[in-house]
Amino acid sequence: MKALVKRDRAPGLWLEDVPKPTVGIxxxxxxxxxxxxxGTDIHIYxxxxxxxxxxPVPMVVGHEFVGEIVETGDNVTDFYPGEIVSGEGHVVxxxxxxxxxxxxxxxxxxxxxxxxxxxAFAEFxxxxxxxxxHHDPSVDRDVAAIFDPFGNAVHTALSFPCLGEDVLVxxxxxxxxxxxxxxxxxxxxxxxxxDVNPWRLSLAKKMGATRVxxxxxxxxxxxxxxxxxxxxFDVGLEMSGNPDAFRSMIDQMCHGGKIAMLGIPSEDxxxxxxxxxxxxxxxxxxxxxEMYETWYKMRVLLQSxxxxxxxITHRFPYRDFQAGFDVMMSGQTGKVILDWNx
Length: 342
Ligand code: NAD
Ligand code: ZN
Hints:
- It is a single chain.
- By secondary structure, the chain is of the alpha/beta class.
- It has two domains: about 1-145 and about 310-340, Quinone Oxidoreductase, Chain A, domain 1; about 155-285, 3-Layer(aba) Sandwich (Rossmann fold), CATH 3.40.50.
- Helix content is about 30%, strand content about 25%.
- The chain is built from twelve helices and 18 strands.
- It has helices spanning about 40-45, 50-55, 95-100, 140-145, 145-155, 175-185, 200-205, 220-225, 245-250, 275-280, 295-305, 320-330, and strands at about 1-5, 15, 25-35, 60, 65-70, 85, 90, 110, 125-130, 130-135, 165-170, 190-195, 210-215, 235-240, 255-260, 280-285, 310-315, 335-340.
- The strands form four sheets. Strands 3, 5, 6, 9, 10, 17 and 18 form a seven-stranded mixed sheet that branches. It has a six-stranded parallel sheet with strand order 13-12-11-14-15-16, sandwiched between helices. Strands 2-1-4 form a three-stranded antiparallel sheet, with no helix packed on it.
- Strand 15 (about 255-260), helix 10 (about 275-280) and strand 16 (about 280-285) form a beta-alpha-beta unit.
- Helix 6 runs parallel beside helix 7.
- It binds nicotinamide-adenine-dinucleotide and zinc ion.
- Zinc ion (ZN) binds near residues 93, 98, 107 and 109.
């Protein structure tokens, strides 16, 4: 089968013929329909220091996908060929204390598809049945392809109640933009989104932000005054990994404010801890999705009218993957979809 492979310990990806995956007794074999390019795939493409210490080569990359079941192992009883599914990208051990307690998103030994085990940028992927998610048959296929990052946005945005709250989203990449839409749909009063990239700010506006702020030229304090907010943001969703963004978030929170932090800092971030202590802030780290409560909520959000379609900005056949990666690296995109049908 065709697959996008990290073949060499160098920048780039290679479209190669690789063996079709085998199907163990607990596995589901899925014919991949569409995939989404993630920031993680860009790190692997560029072969940065994180990728160099994390990715064994050769590795089939990619983890955001939707596809159709074509085969199931002997122990699999509730999945059938023809069903439309996505995969939870974190394969957990099932045996650690958190897994046994049903807190699988907190597994101490998570393996990532397309990172530690063969991924989804391929014609077929085989996954344990515990990692397969049935879609509502009415789901839009492009949206189904991005349930993984949509789940990051939902996990973060619904970590603290949003109803009636003023929410600050720092970073309007694809995940920040989806978090804007989720927070608004969940009843936030104001959702203010920041970035330093005007293209991304206009996308956040399309996704329902009350106000977008280019922090290079505008002050969040003034925006708060303009919106009639007197005491600061109730909820912060950190979606950039940028030190200045995180520090400004801490400055802009109300006393007792709650921060959910998804953005991965590229360096150590020094903050004024007095503000955390005296303002009694809560900071919660977010990794992946809750299995499968986040997935359940994603389905219900879409069924209740959440519209994610503006976040999908580019589509390419898989053979044109290079164009997809190039446009993604330009910063002028939301989600980029690769179609795996020949
Ligand atoms: P992205 O890189 O596309 O978006 C980040 C955005 O932050 C960019 O638009 C960038 O311009 C903006 N930004 C940079 N400096 C800023 C500043 N000072 N203020 C405000 N915005 C600023 O990333 P993404 O794919 O949308 O993902 C969001 C973040 O979440 C990334 O840091 C990513 O690594 C991380 N992530 C975490 C998990 C997890 O499980 N914790 C999963 C996926 C992604
Ligand atoms: Zn575990």
